[in-house]
Amino acid sequence: MLINHPQLGPRDAAEFVYLGDASLMHRPDAQSPTAAEEFHDYLHLRDNPAGVHRELWYHEQGDRAWLIVTRNTLTHEITNVQMARDVALAEQQGHVAS
Amino acid sequence: MRYSAFQIFKQGLTGNKHWPKTWRTPDPAQQYDVIIVGGGGHGLATAHYLAKEHGITNVAVLEKGWLGGGNIGRNTTIIRSNYLLPENEPFYELSMKLWEGLEQDINYNAMVSQRGIINLYHSDSQRDAYVRRGNAMLMAGADAVLLDREGVRAQYPFLDFDNARFPIRGGLWQPRAGTVRHDAVAWGYAHAADSRGVDIIQNCEVNGFIMEDGKCVGVNSTRGSIRAKKVAVCVAGSSGRVMSMAGLRLPIESHVLQAFVSEGLKPVIPGVITYGAGHFYISQSDKGGLVFGGDIDGYNSYAQRGNLPTVEDVCEGGMAMMPVIGRARLLRMWGGIMDMSMDGSPFIDHTSIPGLYFNGGWCYGGFKATPASGWCYAHLIATEQPHETAKGMRLDRFKSGAVMDERGAGAQPNLH
Amino acid sequence: MNNESMRVHDGLLPDAAPISFIFNERKYTARVGDTLASALLANGQKLVGRSFKYHRPRGIFSAGPEEPSALVELRTGAHREPNTRATVTEVFAGLEASSQNHIGPLGFDVMAINDALSTFLSAGFYYKTFMWPKAFWEKLYEPIIRAAAGLGKLSVQEDPDTYEKGFLHTDLLIIGAGPAGLSAALAAGRAGVKVLLVDEDFLPGGRLNLERFDIDGQSSAQWASNAMAELTTLPNVRVLTRTTVYGVYDHGIYGALERVSDHLPTGSHDKPRQILWRIYAKRSLLCSGATERSIAFGNNDRPGIMLAGAARAYLNRFGVSPGKQIAVFTNNDDGWRTAVDFQAAGVEVTAVIDTRSIAPPVDINVPVFMGNRVCDTAGRLALHSVTLTSGETIYCDCLAVSGGWSPNVHLTCHQRARPIWDDTLAAFVPGTDLPAEMQVAGAVNGDMDLASALNAGHQSALSILKNTGNNAKIPPAPQANAESSRITAFWQVPDCLGRAWIDLQNDVTTKDLQLSHREGFRSVEHAKRYTTLGMATDQGKTSNVLGLAVMADIAGQTIPQTGTTIFRPPYTPIPIGALAGRSRGKHFRPTRLPPSHNWASTQGGSFVEVGAWLRAQWFTQAGETHWRQSVDREVLQTRKSVGYCDVTTLGKIDVQGRDAAQFLDKVYANTFSTLKVGRVRYGLMLREDGFVMDDGTTARLAEHHFLMTTTTANAVSVFRHMEFCRQCLWPTLDVHLVSATEQWAQYAIAGPNSRRLLEALVDEPFDISNEGFPFMECATLTVCNGTPARLFRISFSGELAFELAVPARYGHALMDALAEHGKAFDAVPYGLEALGVMRIEKGHAAGNELNGQTTAANLGLGRMVSAAKDCIGKTLSTRPALNTNDANQLVGFIPVDSQQSLRAGAHFIDEGAPLTLASDQGWMTSVAYSPSLQTSIGLGFIRHGQERMGDQVLASSPLHNEQIAVTIVSPHFVDPQGERLRA
Question: Which of C42, C251, C567, C729 has CA atoms 20 to 30 A from the CA of C90?
């Protein structure tokens, strides 16, 4: 596979390390009264879609950026690649990431 | 018909024109005691043991495609019970014992071949971990032998002992492990279950569950609505897709695992060998093909195919371990969808919905588990109680923290 | 027969001096440009092998990579290559080949008894028997089956060849240099497109070299040769011959194998055997042609029966006639061309048998049998006649069969697209869901005649030019006549008495398909697996479509209703050695060397693999004959005076930024924001699931600057995790991470004299007295007259100890300095074993304890998880199963009998308890011989360990038939109060 890194252009997927569903960026609040339940679901439960999947890849043999790759798990087609930090910043500052 | 050498002789004399069908092709009835969703190895084994051990024969196995067409028909055929944890090892040892009597039980030669598995170790700490594991196996009633370097060499003199980046220092050997002709397991269980009255319905895709009063009372399928007292899902890589129709999210991701076979060769490798310094395992089929594999590709996928980096990684491991296979040619590579769980261990459990049962999360180790998985799933469905050897395989174990993490890799499926 | 007596003209081969080769120990001659198959046929050698199951005699069936029958073992000794297709093997001087899969001579294989018993060996017979008595399967039946199965033999010697890997990037990959591929390459190449043209043959041109067609007024072979000559002059075009594109992967990545020296004599060159190319192509054009298939009729498998196009190929390209009397059996117009060409070459054509009723308008003077069929053949080791359904016997030693042509759609299907059936062509053509950016042209797309193929290649190139905005003017498409290729589908001759083969290698006949249908194996996949149809080394290239058609016949369905099996890579088999490339032996994985490696190798160092690193295990001195002597000495001398050890391999992560302290509070279970500048603290890191991830020390070098260390094993994964935390979880924090593992050489200097040794190195006026530089202090300073350095007062050994770091380039020099100044104290270098012994003596957890299954509580570190703040793993570490009362606790063990040696991996049970899982109370994680205590000692996890000090249990290793009585003790065997390290 090729991942079109937003800053470095197309790179072979072998340069990256895969983590999983991009929902792993949404770590629950440990102060929440239901924190135990929320952390359980956050860490363990997955939508696991057969189709479009937003997922986290780390450019370990590159610039060490975490990317959010939108990829179809049936066809492996990649339709979007974002810098995870930009998305996380936008989300945490109240903006909706594009 | 009971299969035997005599039948082969008798049928052969009449031109093999009177062999009966191995299984019927029934239309679905309106109502069953149990519907098993998924006609793979585990589902067919479950049907067999429901019928044979629990006398429940009003059972339908619904299969989206052709029976045995999932991972049971595309794995590397290894059976073993060399697990570490007390929640796993007795289950896999039960499976091994069932394998040992399988063919007489189902009257089908699945070529259970106990030619042993050796897991190589390359460092002191790997050896220590294998000693711990081997002792756990023996304490669970399985068999295990710790080999030193010369012990490994005596069985496999052609491994790379002298020029290796990670020298072989020994191995953990399970003599009773081996291989089984994978397709024949599905066909044999189907044949046996069918002969006890189970309806195996192929080309029947489940596209919804029938819920009444919060209970699951049947399924909607491409062959219409079919009702049942109990619905037992057993769909491996499709677990997420199927259970989402019941509104359930699972601690499972679907990943691709590739497997490989070489051209046919005269016998070289009697048993199974796994490399300890890379991702590679290999055996040789009765037809002569080297059957081998390695790690999963590592990303979520339902595509049943993988990519080149993993192919090359597997072959690198193979050549590092046994450079005598360099001139053997890779004939075919394929991919299966693995139901990778969060701790690398499976589930055989009730769900939060009464009447709906779940069996999955087998990662890439489901084949060896086939008989015990069927045995324990049938036990759960018939008695409502988890089988003694499967009582750790609960869906809620991540809530309690009673995880079954053989590798200590944590809650990340692609690390198991 | 010998001396190339069947070579009837030159074909395309130069009339040069013959070369000699050996087949089955007999010497033959051939021409440069021959394949092994053409050379054998030239010498009249028709019998070349045996089939898989029935050991039927096998000849040469095709002229290409689709060959199911003519498989040989090529070369000898360690170079032996089993299952090599004679039809694609270039003959070279001295080539040695032998037939395979027979016992006794090829002409009299005793295993042919299977053929006589074939009625009892029908498809799947083995699933129904060999079950009784149970023990006989492995002892008797299976060994016989295994020995009989398989084809060629591996040498079972290390592959002596080398393989390279290469990477290519191109704008347009054209796969196949036949009419469509060459036409497309010329058009795109002339327009300046960056083209990579790949062809599997050593003579590009595909069927242009096999037919007697004209293009633009030249012979088709000459035109191909001219086209190649022009392409090689274009700087934007690269051509790879002898190269097979074997697989299509995601996002325009193609795998290809170039056979660089397979056509050269063993030992005659210094080239790699093959190159595995990974091709990154923006778009591709597949021009892979088509493969002919046979017809099922009685005994259609004898040597001498071959595909009609193959017969023509041997004649036109190699000048070889596969027989003296040729008969043609066809259901299409193309088959007639074989008769025409042979007649033109002066070879006797004894019949054309066509299943259709109306003959094509072909000018030919041979007996023609329209609406007739071959129903049986005769000739045990070579064909001598065929019998028609009308009763005539036709004498022929070569029957050229054409059942039609199947487009080579394989590569279009590698991403699981399905081909679609075309009734007019009686063939599958590519479907609509091709791999991204792939087009198809030529016969693979159903453009069966030459004019269409040339034009299709040209038009495809034009459409690519248009889509990429390339407006170059290029000459028009090459012109040729459109020959007729009409076909009326015909698959099997009914009511034949003899068996009719479909898969020639695996011996699958129409009867097997009938049986599988009868037994319920009706899906294509079931039938394939039950009969093994298409599972041989050719993967059914010539048999799959015929098999499907016969299955459709039996089921009374159409072919599209019956379906297809899945095309999987590789297109043709690839040596495992080529896929591994250089990554084997010592080069399997890179080797990381710490900065003192060269120094250590001059000091008697023995090295051991630790992950990717090689580390010194111990340093053997004169007179030491056992490793324990060296290790004991290193430990004792360190504890007595001073020792030094390279600990560079520990991960070092430089953490900087205004929020660095806050960040560390989140990733570590304990608190770092309270750490004072110039101090070091031990840190415990959890995974989010609450289990221990890693540990290490972290130093605060400045207010906003920390240096973290990790274990050697987890250096990479911890850094990745921290980047995840930084970028994905807490992006607003001002913190930056850099791995400094390889930037700094770091050495532990341990023992009561360590301070005195360091005093000789540390530059004035730095004060390393206990008051000036107490335990857990860190500093930036200079050593050895101005070399920048960092000093940490930390101890893994339990002794008064320091770790000194200098830029990696000074690592070797610092070792020299330590050795030189250490002489005054009889200082010793110590290795990984002594380091391990001392850490076990001190009771520090390491890899065997931090195995990913361990909680902080298990390690006795539960109180380190700060209650005052959130951190990774905190919430889930409170789950009940991680906090049970009977949890394992890390404690120490000593044998009751101090002469006994403990064993890591032993399980603890109570005295008298049975050796079962129910009795299992934990296990020994690490053991060592403690020269300080003069006994074996161990660390391990056992239930309620802390409460059971002084209890006796058994450490059992049934693997070794061993039970050792041990006493539970504190894990801190040496200096439990920690007085030494604070001294």
Answer: C567
